[in-house]
Design goal:
This protein is an alpha+beta fold and about 350 residues long. Helices cover about 25% and strands about 25% of the residues. The strands form six sheets. Strands 5, 6, 7, 8 and 9 form a five-stranded antiparallel sheet that branches. It has a four-stranded antiparallel sheet with strand order 10-18-11-12. A three-stranded antiparallel sheet has the order 13-16-17. A hairpin with an 8-residue loop joins strand 16 and strand 17 (about 310-315). It is globular and about 80 Å long.
């Protein structure tokens, strides 16, 4: 949903006004949008991740199919107009029982408005609607390693509330646990008690399956193609690649926890349209189709598709993206490390 909204507010209908959003169901603008006579507009938009480079390959049926998958429908409708001045007048009223009927709505919109700057700032991670953490690449980043492939980031909590005769913005220090960015293999090794750079064992990956489930990882093995379908080269003569984004569903389901040599799938060679489909192992596929000889074929492969329609990725080809909070129950020691008093001590030691 967040990507859909990011792409939607780039539409020309939003030109000439300031826009803030909760990236879910509410868009706040500084002027009325032209949504038609019924103040309602429906349409479709291609959802593109702005952090990825634009597509430059062949505009063929496969590319069109990908565009169709990325195209989503939306509906915009006007829900009301709100004035901050009305809220201020109600707060300044001297008569008993003075009340502004739209107060709760205006407070909600103000919370969305104050979130605009951190949401628009690169390398700031939002957790919920009101918590923000400067991350990798930000000069304001403050972090300490905790345990098991995690790090604590210090940020802040911001919220708008009303008081007698005034509107207040409440700011508090906040801390949260995030997954460490970097090679997924390193994360698994640290989770099981090893060190970064140490190759995990097959049983380590099985143990870490729940820990890495639904993590977003980046891949960089797909070759970038020019308009003629040939691999593009960089200044050093090396093949250029196109980054991809995957979500880890779990480990290979068939066979359960299978490695790159035992997990197979039905595959048809696109260069031979008349050839019959055949079973190919994950190891052979990456070697023959991408020129990659896996260094750890003994490790279980990841399922980055769905449970009913799995798609496979060797763990050594995945890189954990930054800014992913831990949404599972933390161990006692890790949770204690996130206690504000311990966090303050950790950060004072690291500064």
């Amino acid at each position: 949903m967040r990507l859909l909204v990011i792409n939607l507010i780039k539409d020309p209908m939003f030109a000439g006004c300031q826009v803030a959003t909760d990236y879910s169901s509410i868009v706040v603008t500084t002027k009325k949008l032209d949504l038609g006579p019924a103040d309602r507009k429906q349409g479709k938009i291609e959802v593109i991740d702005p952090t990825f480079p634009p597509f430059q390959g062949l505009d063929n049926a496969q590319a069109q199919e990908a565009r169709n998958r990325r195209t989503k429908g939306y509906e915009l409708s006007k829900t009301g107009e709100f004035s901050l001045a009305d809220l201020v007048r109600a707060l300044q009223a001297t008569q008993a029982g003075a009340w502004f009927e739209g107060q709760a709505d205006v407070i909600q919109l103000l919370n969305i408005v104050i979130s605009k700057t951190p949401n628009d700032t690169a390398n700031v991670y939002s957790l919920g609607q009101n918590k923000y953490y400067p991350g990798v690449g930000s000069p304001l980043m403050e972090q300490v390693d905790i345990t098991g492939g995690l790090q604590a980031l210090r940020g802040y909590f911001a919220s708008v509330r009303t008081s007698s005769n005034r509107i207040l913005v409440n700011l508090n220090v906040a801390s949260a646990a995030f997954y460490k960015a970097g090679p997924l293999m390193n994360l698994v090794s640290e989770f099981v008690g090893g060190y970064s750079g140490q190759a995990p064992r097959p049983q380590d990956l099985v143990r870490a399956e729940g820990f890495i489930r639904m993590l977003r990882v980046e891949t960089n093995y797909l070759k970038a193609l020019d308009a003629n379908g040939k691999t593009k080269m960089d200044a050093q003569g090396r093949p250029q690649t196109v980054p991809g984004l995957k979500s880890v569903v779990g480990l290979a389901p068939r066979p359960r926890d299978g490695d790159a040599r035992t997990v197979t799938f039905s595959w048809s060679d696109p260069k031979k349209p008349q050839a019959a489909a055949r079973n190919i192992s994950v190891f052979e596929f990456f070697k023959t189709q991408h020129g990659i000889t896996l260094q750890h074929p003994e490790l279980p492969v990841l399922n980055v598709g769905t449970r009913s329609d799995p798609s496979y990725l060797p763990i050594e080809l995945g890189t954990v993206l930054p800014g992913q909070p831990v949404r599972r129950l933390l161990s006692g020691g890790t949770y204690r490390s996130l206690n504000p008093y311990y966090i303050a001590e950790f950060f004072s030691r690291s500064s």
